[in-house]
Amino acid sequence: MRVRAHSEPGSKCAGKGQVAAGAADLVGMEDARIGSMSGVRWLPGAGNLVACVVALVIWGSIASCMVAADDTRAQAAVAGQQGDLPASYRTFVPSLPVSHPPYSEFHASWMQRLDQPYIYLEHYGSYAETGSILPVVIREMRIQGLEPSGAPFCLFYDDPAQKPADQLLSRACVPIADQRSPVTPLRYEVLPSRTVAYAYVSGAYPEVPRSYPYILDYMKGRNFVIDGPIRETYIVPPSVAKAASDFLCEVQVPVASGNR
């Protein structure tokens, strides 16, 4: 396996995309996460943070989706209710080549992620249950007149290899453009601006955590350590993917210098 480091930082922006995932994509996610993270040494004081994202919301009718032949571009075109997403979120263009399992060649780089306000619901329990909460978040946001600004995501705060399933803390989240004061049960917070290592990977979404060791190899080569929850953004919706290789996911890992 060769990890190809891209020395130039990526765009200084939060990940954008057209996102949807079916409930079937959650099956096996927790087992994959446990297996992929075994043997990883966690940063002291980071609370044994692990995060993954499972998206269940279809923002609009998906007319077409394409991963380009050179693996450097992916486009999700939105038809129907175009007002469901701002224009900047209707087309997603990765800034790195896509890495394909079994990752004989892996592409990774780093970028500065901007602050991301978001609305969320917390969940204690199996990570396989978190994605099912996203439709609840979306419904409550619509009731309260809160507009999403991009793709939904979930944050998973514990290592499932270290805690019982019923004690795992996660959040089902939807980004918004600015500060709001949602009504219970929704909550508001800001995902802070951070330097993140990142990559784009293809393959079935429950298998995405298997890419983590390769990102960690990239981080090790730059003396980076994990410094926050990993974030995944699902770009290609299962409703239009014809094969596992059609799926596209962005993985972000907040980092800090190992010398601090």
Mean pLDDT: 72
Estimate nothing, just give the exact number of structural domains: 1
The oligomeric state of the chains shown is single chain
Distance between the termini: 30 Å
- What integer value in Å does the Rg equal? 17 Å
Unreliably modeled segments: 11-30, 37-89
Q: What share of residues are in beta strands? A: 25-35%
Total E-strand runs: 12
Question: What is the architecture at the second tier of CATH?
Answer: Alpha-Beta Barrel
CATH superfamily: Regulatory factor, effector binding domain
CATH fold type: Multidrug-efflux Transporter 1 Regulator Bmrr, Chain A
The helix content, as a percent range, equals 10-25%
- Which class of secondary structure composition applies to the elements? mainly beta
Query: Biggest sheet, in brief?
Result: 6 strands, mixed
Number of helices: 3
The topology string of helices and strands comes to EHEEEEHEEEEHEEE
The CATH class is: Alpha Beta
Question: Shape, please?
Answer: globular
What does this structure look like?
This protein is mainly beta. The protein has one domain: Alpha-Beta Barrel (Multidrug-efflux Transporter 1 Regulator Bmrr, Chain A). Helices cover 11% and strands 30% of the residues. Strands 1, 4, 9, 10, 11 and 12 form a 6-stranded mixed β-sheet that branches. The radius of gyration is 17 Å and the shape is globular. Mean pLDDT is 72; it is low at 11-30 and 37-89.
